[in-house]
Amino acid sequence: MSKKSPQLLAALQNGLIASCQPVDDGPMDNPNIVAAMAQACVIGGAKGIRIEGVANLKATRPVVDVPIIGIVKRDLPDSPVRITPFLQDIDDLAEAGADIIAVDGTFRPRPVEIEMALKRIHERGCLAMADCSNLEEGRYCHQLGFDIVGSTMSGYTSGEVPDDPDYQLVRDLKALRANVMAEGRYNSPELAQQAIRCGADFVTVGSALTRLEHIVSWFATAIESAQQGGK
């Protein structure tokens, strides 16, 4: 665990982490816009920011003073793992100013073993977060020494994505005495609030805050449904 872990974790405690990840190749997919999103989120009360991509992180780091979780997403031909798959990604995120670096914490085939990723993150002086999909993965990552264990990947590794957040996973991870990040489908203040009541230490919200295309589509679909006599 990094020497700065207690201070960083205390700064985030019971807080909202805003994931400022615009739709890929959309009109808001620009480092300056991402940095502006992050600033607006901090003004609104976010205690931390989650940023994808080194260029976006470099643009955001100088304009916010809250902890930043950094990730790099890649589409690999030989692995389903997308979140910070390589050691070089960890190095690049650390150099760009990430305080916390998140990696895929699932048991799926990967280019770099979880243990190696954890070691490199801590060597770079950053806190390590594991994005997990189930309790077994979360337990393993917590025992390895990850500073934060998240429910990020729950519902996204196979089959149809559920509508609701995985509150049970949050409860189970907290029973391990881990620092728990609730993440994944927390699309309203009420859902995020419930995550804290279930034991989460922090809650990450993404689409409902920073993916304008998604937010508008929710309203547009609801209005269209009402026009057609739906509920």
Automatic annotation (TrEMBL):
Keyword Isomerase recorded: yes
PANTHER family, sorted: N-ACETYLMANNOSAMINE-6-PHOSPHATE 2-EPIMERASE-RELATED
Record's keyword terms, sorted: Carbohydrate metabolism, Isomerase
NCBIfam families, sorted: PRK01130.1
PROSITE patterns, per the entry: PROKAR_LIPOPROTEIN
This enzyme's EC code(s): 5.1.3.9
Keyword Isomerase attached: yes
Family: Belongs to the NanE family.
GO cellular component, one term: cytosol
Pfam families, per the entry: NanE (PF04131)
Organism: Haemophilus paracuniculus
Domain of life (superkingdom): Bacteria
One MF annotation (Gene Ontology) recorded for this entry: N-acylglucosamine-6-phosphate 2-epimerase activity
Catalytic reaction annotation: an N-acyl-D-glucosamine 6-phosphate = an N-acyl-D-mannosamine 6-phosphate
The protein's annotated pathway: Amino-sugar metabolism; N-acetylneuraminate degradation; D-fructose 6-phosphate from N-acetylneuraminate: step 3/5
Name of the protein described by the UniProt record: Putative N-acetylmannosamine-6-phosphate 2-epimerase
